[in-house]
Amino acid sequence: MNASRHTFTNFEDALTALRENILMMGSLTERNLLRATNGLLKRDSELCNAAIVDDEEVDLLEKEIDLTGIEIITRYQPVASDLRVVVSAMRISSNLERIADQATSIARRARKLNQHPSLDEVVFLEPMLQKVMSLLRDSLRAYSEHNTELARTFKERDREIDALNKEVTGRLTGSISQNTDAIPGYLNLIFIARNLERVGDHSTNIGEDIVFAESAEDIRHSQSRLVADS
Questions:
Q1: pLDDT tens digits for 173-219?
Q2: Separation of alpha carbons 201 and 130, rounded Å
Q3: Structural domain count, the chain
Q4: pLDDT beneath 50: ranges in the chain
Q5: What domain range includes position 22?
Q6: Torsion angle, CA of 91/94/96/101, rounded to 10 degrees?
Q7: Which residue from 160, 137, 104 is spatially nearest to 207, judged by alpha carbons?
Q8: CATH code of the domain covering residue 132
Q9: φ/ψ of residue 188, rounded to 5
């Protein structure tokens, strides 16, 4: 993997390598999250183990993307739109790595839950799981297709996920008072809901970086300001 950093013959090859690694990292991250959440819903600890083990591959890709980005900046000194593409790619890889970390946390907690009798309340998480997975997939699609219109929808969708997190946490807290013997399990579900909420945050960050790379507009913190091309 690292050898590819030394085979760039021109600027376009370097950008292509950067983009391909982002797409590969995104695919692996999505797979890890799917394995972790299926490990929870299907009580399959082998899926959880696979998500945990494969996190190392995501970490290695993040390092490769950072090294490639730094090499592009130092060797080719890109300006304006090209520089935004490189910087945004590095930020996207950081968010993908954090999503993979959340998947690992979900897998670890799911594996603990699988060692005990099942909790009916796990179904509380399903609507949130569906929205989070859809948002992550759309963030990868928006990057692949340079789709800023799609990326601009993420903030509102993330607010829906935040609301679901509060609802799920409230319902699980109520379950704790009714079944104190299962407190550790309910707490694990509450933390998994928090992990999912963080995946939504990072997917939204990816959307912000896509908009910045494609249109030079910074939409972070609910503000928009134009960054002029030089």
A1: 999 999 999 999 999 999 999 999 999 999 999 999 999 999 988 88
A2: 15
A3: 1
A4: 1-5, 223-230
A5: 2-226
A6: -160
A7: 137
A8: 1.20.58.220
A9: -60, -40
Q: What type of residue is 120?
A: D
157 contacts: CB under 8 Å, gap ≥ 6: 131, 134, 135, 200, 204
pLDDT digits (tens, 9 = 90+) for 135-154: 999 999 999 999 999 999 99
Helix axes 154-178, 183-215, angle to 10 degrees: 170
Contact 89, 19 (CB under 8 A): yes
Nearest to 131 by CA among 96, 110, 103, 159: 159
Please report, as a single letter, which amino acid is at residue 45. Answer: S
What pTM did the predictor assign? 0.91
- Cβ atoms of 211 and 148 within 8 Å: the answer is yes
User: Which structure tokens are listed for 126?
Assistant: 């399903």
